[in-house]
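Weekly modeling sync, notes
Attendees: S.R. (lead), two postdocs, one rotation student

Agenda item 3: backlog of single-chain predictions. S.R. asked that every request posted to the team notebook include the full sequence so nobody has to chase files. The rotation student volunteered to paste the first one in as an example of the format we agreed on. Action items at the bottom.

Example entry:
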Amino acid sequence: MIKNEVTVQDVCNLFNEIIAKDPRCAEDLIEARVQCNNVILNHPTIQVRQSCEDQYPKVGLLGFLNGLFGISENGMGALCAVYDDDGNLQSLQPTDTVEFTDQE
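Predicted structure, as returned to the notebook:
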């Protein structure tokens, strides 16, 4: 059945199912980024990474999905990848349900 509407929680639920069934696949999907142009870099909602190490901006699945749902007033996307202290992907969560802490 084709869904005409998908919520942030729907995306999280499906992605968390991937994490449970194949954690490596899930992590590869979240970590993969492809080169994009400045038009995408300057898109109002798609989240793009541009670092000193990269010659070109890059976009990934999470940046694209956040682009679909838009950004909040503080510039955060609707979706957040949650990692444990060892850097392992634990879940995809709605950003407004995640408590952020400063890291030293």
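Discussion: group reviewed the output briefly. Residues 8-84 form one domain.
Action items: rotation student to repeat for the remaining queue; S.R. to check formatting next week.
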